[in-house]
Amino acid sequence: MEQFLKKILPPKIVQFLKNRRIKRKNNRLKKLPALSISQLEDIIRNKLGIMEGDIVLIHSSLGNLNLKCSPFEVLDLILNIVGENGTILFPTYPKLTSLKFLEAEKVFNVNKTPSYMGILSELARRHPKAVRSLHPTKSVVAIGKHAEELTKEHSESIYPYGELSPYYKINEYNGKTIGIGVSTRNLSCIHCVDDIMKDEFPVMPYDEKVFDSTCIDSEGNKKIVSTYAHEIEKMNYNIPNFIKKYVENAICKDIDISGMKFFRADSTRLLEKLLSLAKEGKTVYNKKHYRRR
Fold first, then answer.
1. Which residue ranges of the chain lie beneath pLDDT 50?
2. What per-residue string of b and e applies to 82-118 under the rule 16 or more CB within 10 Å gives b?
3. Domain ranges within the chain, ordered by starting residue
């Protein structure tokens, strides 16, 4: 919405609306019950279903929670829950949209480009044991037993959510996907079905150009990574409504706890369901974007 407003309104008006939205959000947060670290642990274990040894893709916005603990404590908590045999992953996208980032010919540095997917993802990126996938716009950081194998091939396909991506690979480990402070509106792995089906998917979600992006790997070497970028106008959809309408709660569910948003998903079963729905012509995308067969 903010990107759309920037196109039609003067910068001062956009900033005024942004400040007002932030003020409303802060006022709302003050009215929510404060969550202690032990209460958050109970939510993660018993509401989101995370346990020792799990492979978990995490979407988060701690700014949407009224927490009585620091982001550092939250990251340590999740690492302790999954233990030494588990692995946690976070999307670590750059500030700009994929298309704008690539059109501007920005250089992605796996060690230095910050994550704009919430403070928790940025702390994970800076963790001494973090391994980050080499992808200019849809990178993922992982910490844990399977971090290396989950992230190592991301740069080798033009499809950012395809079979070589961490978003797909977690399915090989019976992975889970959760949201902390966010709803399924942030469910990034929903695009795996697009990239697996490719031309058979009802929508072509990408700009037609394949971009060759300069990236710098963990050893400081330059590498050209070729990738598609989503067309912004096609990204106007409502994932929570789609999930509620077509996906069973046992597979994926939005959860409201004292006015704060969470979600949980069985990644493998969700992908299977999305593939089945797509073959029936049911996707999150607006019908006006469907291919003409």
1. 1-2, 4-5
2. beeebbbbbbbbbeebbbebbeeebebbbeebebebb
3. 1-31, 38-286
